[in-house]
Amino acid sequence: MEKEKMLDLLACMARIREFDTMAEKVFLSGEIQGFVHVYRGEEATATGICAALRKDDYITSTHRGHGHLIAKGADVNEMLAELCGKSTGCNGGKGGSMHIADIDKGIIGANGLLAAGLTLGTGAAFSAKYRETDQVAVSFFGDGSSNEGEFHETMNLASLWKLPQIFVCENNGYQVTCPVSRTVACKTIAERASAYNMPGVTVDGNDVLAVLEAARKAVERARNGEGPTLIECITTRVGGHYVGDPSPYVPKEEKATWKERDCIERFSKLLVKEGIATEAEIDEIKKAEKKRIEDAMEFARQSPYPDVEEAVRNVYSDFDEEGRNR
Amino acid sequence: MKKLAMVQGLNQAMFKAMAEDDRVFMLGLDISTGSMGVSLGLQQQFGEKRIIDCPAAESGYVGACVGAAITGLRPIAEIQFADFVTYCMDQLVNQAPKMHYWFGKKASVPIVFRLPGGSGGQAASQHSQNLEALFTHIPGMKVVLPSTPRDARGLLLASIRDNDPVAFFENKFTYGVTEEVEDDEFDNFEAIPLGVADVKREGKDLTIVATGAMVAKSLAAAEELAKEGIEAEVVDPRTLYPLDKKAIFNSIAKTGRLIIVTEENKRGAWSAEMASLAAEEMFESLKAPIIRIGALNTPMPFVRVLEEYVLPQVCDIVAEAKKICK
To answer: Has this prediction a pTM greater than 0.90?
Structure first.
C-alpha cells in the first residue's frame, strides 16, 4: 500500500481517538450532558472497514458511533457541535451523540437501539440493488446485538436476496457489563454466518490492515452481486460502557492488556518498523489531529444553541407541531 | 353506477401508485397471491422486483423498508395482521417516526405501514385488535383509518405519496363492503388529502365522531334517531393524525353535543384523546357531557355471542344519544 494511504489510516484512527478523548473530557467537566459512549480502543475496526468504502456507500452505526461516523467522513466540527447541542451540529442539536446522522455522506446514523442499524442497513442495501447502483451498505453492531432477533432476520434476508450488505460485528467482549461468554452460545460470532449461507470471518479488530483486507473482500463480493458477508472484529473497549463507568466488572488482568492491544500504538510501531514513517512523522500526524479536534471544540463552543421553536419543526415534513406560548 | 368494494379500492390505489412512481414497492407476507385480496394482481403487473413475498421476519423486512425509504425509495410494508405489528415495534416507534427529526430537511421517511386490523369476524384476541391509539401517540407518525371504499382508495394513494411514515389501518372485516360510484369514477380517482375529515351525514342535534367500521354503525344509529326526531351529524375524521379539528369543532359548535364511537377497547383509546381535545377547546359549546363508546376492556372473545356483546352496536349509540338529547 502507498505510504500516503497508510498514513491516512493512522490519521483517521488518531482523529477518532482525539475526538473521543475530547468528548470524554467535556462530558466529565459538565460542559456536555446526555449519554455518551466512546470508541476508544476500537478505532482500527471503523477505520479499516470504511477505508474500503466509497463516499456514496452507506453505513449504519450504533450507540458507540463516533468512530464509524468519523471514518465515513463526517465533519468533526458538526459532530462536536451536535454533542454540544448546537444549531451548527449535524442534526441541529436534536440528535445528540446517539443519533448523529448525515445522509449526504451515506451515514444513516448512530442509533440508540441494539441491532436497529442492521435492519436499516438491509434496507439501504435493498435500495442500492433496486436502484441498480453498485453501492454497498455496512452495518456496524456489537456482540450483544448478535443475540437480537433483528440480527438473525436480516442475515437471512440479506443472504436470501443477495444484498450488498456487510455485517460488521465489533466483538469487544462485553454486552454493556456482561462478558460475551455469558451471552453468546457459540464459539465465535462469525460462525453464525454459516446458518445463513454466507461467509463469516473473524479478524483481529485491533489490526487495521487485517480489517481493511477483510473489508475489501466483502465489498468486492457485495459489489459483484454475490451477497453479504459477516466480519467479526475482535476488539477492545478501553474503558466502560459509557463515559463515567469505571468498569469494575472487567478483570484487572484484562485491563492490564489494554495498552499492548492498543491499535494506534501497534500500527505506529509497524509503520516505523517497516520504514514507512518516522516517529517524528507519526507524532506530527497525531498532533495535527489533536489540533483539528481542539479547533472543532472551539467551533462548537462558539456556535449558538438552536431557537426553541426548532423543537417543533421537522417532526413532519409538511407541517410544524404546536409550540408553547411562553 | 358500479359497485366498488373496500378491497378493490385499496388494490386500485396501489396499482395507481406503482404505475406512476417506480420507487414504490411492497414487502409483506404472501402478497404475491393476494393476501386477503388487497394485493391481487400486483405482482403480475409490476413483477417480482417490486412485489416481494418475505420470510416471516417482520422486524427484518419492515426495518428494511425504513432503510429503503431513507435512501430514496417509497415502500409499502404490509403487516399481514395489525396485531403482528408487535413484532416490529422498534421500527414503528423508535426508528421511522424519529428519523426526519434527526435528518431535518436533508431526508424524509416516505413509508406506508398497511395494518389490517378490526374486529367482528370471530378472529379472537390475537387477530382482532384496533391498535391505532398506539401510533397516534407517537410523534412523527401519521395515522389513517378509512371507513368507505372510496375513502380507502383516495387515502391510501395520498399516504403512498406522502413523505412521512403513515400507519394505515384497514378494517379487514369490511373488505367486502361496497359503495356505489359513477362508472367513470370507478377507474378515475384522485388522492384524498390526509388531515381532512368528511361529514358523512348532516344533523343539528348531536355530533357523532366515528371511525372505521363504526361509521356505518353510527349512520345506522342516526337513521333510527331520526325516526324519533333527533338529527345526528356523523363526522368521520378519516385521518386520526393529523386531525381535522376544525371540521369536528365546527360540528360541535353547531350541535353542542358529542359522542365518539370507535371500535378500540375504551381504556386509553384514541377516542379519549378526541374527547379531551373537545373538552379543552370546545367546553363552552357543549350542552351535555361528552360520551365515548368503544369496545369493552377485554381481549376480543371468540364466540359470536360474546364478541357482539364486547363490540359497540347500533343500539348502544342510539341509547347514549337519547340520553344526552333529552
So the answer is: yes
Asked, as a colleague might, if the bond just before B242 is cis with ω within 30 of 0, I would say: yes
In DSSP terms, which residues pair with B295 in a beta bridge?
B265
pLDDT in tens, A156-174: 999 999 999 999 999 999 9
d(CA A134, CA B103): 24
ipTM of the complex: 0.96
Angle at B108 between CA B53 and CA A128, to 5 degrees: 50
User: In sequence order, which residues have a C-beta less than 8 Å from that of residue A273 and are 6 or more positions away?
Assistant: none
Q: Between A and B, how many CB-CB pairs are < 8 A?
A: 137
Put simply, the answer to whether A317 touches B164 (Cβ < 8 Å) is: yes
Contacts of residue B68 in chain A, CB cutoff 8 Å?
123-124, 126-127, 130
Query: Cα separation of A183 and A189, whole Å?
Result: 11
Task: Residue B207: name the closest of B227, B225, B228 by CA.
Answer: B225
Residues of B in contact with A124 (CB under 8 A): 67-68, 70-71
Asked whether the beta carbons of B170 and B10 are under 8 A apart, the reply is yes
- DSSP-assigned letters across all residues of A90-107: TTTTSS-GGG--BGGGTE
A288-297 pLDDT, tens digit per residue, is 999 999 999 9
Q: How close B152 comes to chain A (CA, Å)?
A: 22
